[in-house]
């Protein structure tokens, strides 16, 4: 190490993943930095060191430390410059300032600019370890809490993922496994099956909850504008470009770029997308220098990309880069058992938003909804329910409140039988879910369901 560089610890055979956390030590006294580094490595931390402001900021960018130990007195700008720069790179970084000048002014200035703690030289290693362990534990707990909030948010917002049937349960299980990995994902399925809500579910589970989810429809934008949207441009790149513009890949930060209808992207744009995904760099229009990005890439299409590759309309190398994990969204006609639950959820949402006191649908209407072809999938069902809430006159929607093409003209006896079976199945699943949520407390479940305790036991016996 020298005063203008940074160094990351490398030990032969060590697991490349951090064991207890990543710590950046910034001190222009090489002996002190080396001693702290050796001590923390012995305690199971991965450590990088730097001796001045420029080296520290470079290490903060490349090493992404969880904790920074920084001397107040540094060449090239001082420790407060490192503090501010590290927090700009990652607001979740925790900074401990080290000073030989234990004055109130130093501490106040550091805390005002975002420091989390301080140490006084000469450093006592036991005190140092206690502070680093406390901050890394705090950061880990905070991230776990954010993850829980993201999962709750994903459940609340992803209406197209409502349903308890096996097809959608398999999709949710796959999202739960893949979401935290931040690997590239290709989501396939017909229009309206919920590809974007699935992508938002991946985003909610796999990154900074405050980072943006930026979506672009590759079929809706001319390819020249699409590349500008994705990669950005520099000032003067073309007439009217009076300032730099960050494309979606850079603007997304540590979030997600969602490439909807990726099968419609022109071959020339596909080549640039391939390079960006492989190198994690983009070249803005008119620029001579690439910019790095950290965003996750999730793509979606209603086409069979394998067939498009065979036909020469889609690059095979890009297909394999995007298709690290594939998620196939089932059409609504293949999960009709989910329709009663979807109707309940969507109806409640539209009634609340529109200020209407609507709380259900008549059996004939539910029969029609369960029998419809739903070529537009969940999006079509959502639109039909919104229309019915607006046009309906009573608290329970009738078949006449829906478009005529959705409702059967003369339902046969076997259709009524199908409806009764569907309603019984939905009632069974609904009761089982409430009982489970109540921790098998039958009395509490009966209260929530609006049933007497004896009625609940009778229904449980009937559906067993």
At the first level of CATH, the class of the largest domain is: Alpha Beta
Strand content bin: 5-15%
In the CATH hierarchy, the architecture of the largest domain is 3-Layer(aba) Sandwich
CATH topology of the largest domain: Rossmann fold
Question: What is the count of DSSP helices, taking H or I runs of 4+ residues?
Answer: 18
Query: Biggest sheet, in brief?
Result: 6 strands, mixed
Q: What would you call the quaternary organization? A: single chain
Helicity range of the residues? 40-55%
- When the domains are counted, the total is 3
Name the poorly predicted regions: 1-18, 148-157, 410-417
Count of extended strands: 17
Please tell me the overall pLDDT: 82
Q: Assign the structural class, choosing from mainly alpha, mainly beta, alpha/beta, alpha+beta, or little secondary structure.
A: alpha/beta
* N→C terminal distance: 70 Å
Tell me the CATH superfamily of the largest domain: P-loop containing nucleotide triphosphate hydrolases
Descriptive report:
With 464 residues, the protein is of the alpha/beta class. It has three domains: 6-141, Rossmann fold (3-Layer(aba) Sandwich); 158-330, Rossmann fold; 334-463, Helicase, Ruva Protein, domain 3 (Orthogonal Bundle). The protein is 48% helix and 14% strand. It has 18 helices and 17 strands. It has helices spanning 30-42, 53-63, 79-89, 104-112, 125-157, 166-178, 195-205, 223-231, 248-251, 267-279, 305-310, 316-322, 339-354, 363-371, 377-391, 413-437, 442-449, 453-463, and strands at 6-8, 22-26, 46-50, 67-71, 94-99, 117-120, 185-188, 213-217, 232-233, 245-246, 256-260, 281-282, 291-292, 296-301, 325-328, 360-361, 396-397. The strands form five sheets. A six-stranded mixed β-sheet has the order 1-3-2-4-5-6, sandwiched between helices. The protein has a five-stranded parallel β-sheet with strand order 8-11-14-7-15, with helices on both faces. A two-stranded antiparallel sheet has the order 9-10. Helix 6 (166-178) packs parallel to helix 7 (195-205). The longest helix has 33 residues, at 125-157. It is globular, with a radius of gyration of 28 Å. The N and C termini lie far apart (70 Å). Mean pLDDT is 82; it is low at 1-18, 148-157 and 410-417.
């Amino acid at each position: 190490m020298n005063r203008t560089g940074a160094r990351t610890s490398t030990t032969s055979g060590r697991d490349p993943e951090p064991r207890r956390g990543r710590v950046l030590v910034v001190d222009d006294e090489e002996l002190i930095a080396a001693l702290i580094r050796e001590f923390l490595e012995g305690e199971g931390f991965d450590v990088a060191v730097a001796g001045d402001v420029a080296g520290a900021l470079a290490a903060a960018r490349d090493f992404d430390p969880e904790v920074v130990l920084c001397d107040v007195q540094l060449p090239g700008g001082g420790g407060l410059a490192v503090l501010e720069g590290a927090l700009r790179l990652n607001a979740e970084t925790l900074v401990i300032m080290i000073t030989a000048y234990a004055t109130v002014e130093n501490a106040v200035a550091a805390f005002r600019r975002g420091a989390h703690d301080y140490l006084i030289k000469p450093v006592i290693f036991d005190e140092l370890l206690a502070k680093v362990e406390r901050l890394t534990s705090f950061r880990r707990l905070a991230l776990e809490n954010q993850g829980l909030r993201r999962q709750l948010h994903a459940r609340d917002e992803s209406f197209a993922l409502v349903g308890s049937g096996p097809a959608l349960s398999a999709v949710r299980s796959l999202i739960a496994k893949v979401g935290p990995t931040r690997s590239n994902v290709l989501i396939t399925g017909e229009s309206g099956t919920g590809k974007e809500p699935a992508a938002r579910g991946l985003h909610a589970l796999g990154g900074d909850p405050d980072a943006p989810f930026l979506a672009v429809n590759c079929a809706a934008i001319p390819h020249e504008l699409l590349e500008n949207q994705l990669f950005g441009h520099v000032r003067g790149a073309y007439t009217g470009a009076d300032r730099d513009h960050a494309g979606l890949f850079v603007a997304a930060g540590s979030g997600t770029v969602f490439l909807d209808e990726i099968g419609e992207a022109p071959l020339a744009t596909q080549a640039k997308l391939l390079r960006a995904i492989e190198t994690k760099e983009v070249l803005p229009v008119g620029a001579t220098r690439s910019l790095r990005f950290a965003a996750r890439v999730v793509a979606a299409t209603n086409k069979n990309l394998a067939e498009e590759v065979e036909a020469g309309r889609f690059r095979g190398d890009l297909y394999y880069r995007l298709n690290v994990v594939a998620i196939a969204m089932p059409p609504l006609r293949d999960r009709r058992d989910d329709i009663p639950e979807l109707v309940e959820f969507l109806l409640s949402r539209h009634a609340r938003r529109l200020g209407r006191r609507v709380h259900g649908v008549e059996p004939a209407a539910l029969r029609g909804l369960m029998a419809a072809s739903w070529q537009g999938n969940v999006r079509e069902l959502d639109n039909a329910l919104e229309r019915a809430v607006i046009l309906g006159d009573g608290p329970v929607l009738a078949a006449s409140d829906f478009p005529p093409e959705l409702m059967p003209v003369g339902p046969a006896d076997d259709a009524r039988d199908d409806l009764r079976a569907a309603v019984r199945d939905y009632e069974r699943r609904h009761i089982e879910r409430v009982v489970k949520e109540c921790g098998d407390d039958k009395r509490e479940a009966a209260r929530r369901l609006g049933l007497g305790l004896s009625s609940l036991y009778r229904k449980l016996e009937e559906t067993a």
